Amino acid sequence: MALYVDGAMNRDTGCEAWASVVDASRRDVVGQYSNLFPDLTLKLVNLPVGQRVIAVALFNDVISQQVNGSELLAFIMGLRIALYKINDENENISYIYSDSQTIVQWWSKSGANPKTARTMDKRKLAFIQEAITERKMFEALGGQVIKIDGAINPADLGYHK
């Protein structure tokens, strides 16, 4: 089984950015596992691709670039769901797909650049640390994190297709 994660920010999301997770059939899975996200703000929204439960990203740093924060939250949600399904439901989640190079190549492997980390929202830094820890756990269980092109990401919120 695979999970796809994505984040977006545009005029419809306002000053927030939104994070989404779907399965390979393009079904929203955030609402089904909402109990795994007590520290996130979730809401049901109507999107060009249909209704989804999304997580709201609104960090206190770089207000005009909340999209990286939403990509991070989507990745965290994907990891939490995958680890829950593997450990508690004995279901194999083999892949998490993301179109964010920042998340796949840097933040979830080695963290934020120390130079920029000094000005980052503390909550975002904590989520980056969680991404590193949970990615290691996921990969130790045989899972893979794969970077895909945004044009083929089923978790896309539908604003630029």
Walk me through what this model shows.
- This protein is α/β, with parallel strands linked by helices and 161 residues long.
- It has one domain: 2-Layer Sandwich (Nucleotidyltransferase, domain 5), CATH 3.30.420.
- The chain contains four helices and six strands.
- A six-stranded mixed sheet has the order 3-4-2-1-5-6.
- β3 (41-47) and β4 (50-57) form a beta hairpin.
- It is globular, with a radius of gyration of 14 Å.
Write a brief caption for the model.
This protein has helices at 67-87, 101-107, 114-117, 122-140; strands at residues 2-8, 17-23, 41-47, 50-57, 95-98, 144-147. With 161 residues, the chain is of the alpha/beta class.
SSE string: EEEEHEHHHE
Number of structural units classed as domains: 1
> What is the name of the CATH architecture?
2-Layer Sandwich
Give the overall shape: globular
If you average the pLDDT, what whole number results? 90
Count the DSSP helices: 4
| Gyration radius from CA atoms, angstroms | 14 Å
What is the strand tally?
6
Q: Could you name the CATH class? A: Alpha Beta
Classify the oligomer: single chain
Question: What percent of the residues sit in helical stretches (DSSP H or I)?
Answer: 25-40%
Query: In whole angstroms, how far apart are the ends?
Result: 25 Å
CATH topology: Nucleotidyltransferase, domain 5
Low-pLDDT parts are none
Alpha-beta content class: alpha/beta
Largest sheet: 6 strands, mixed
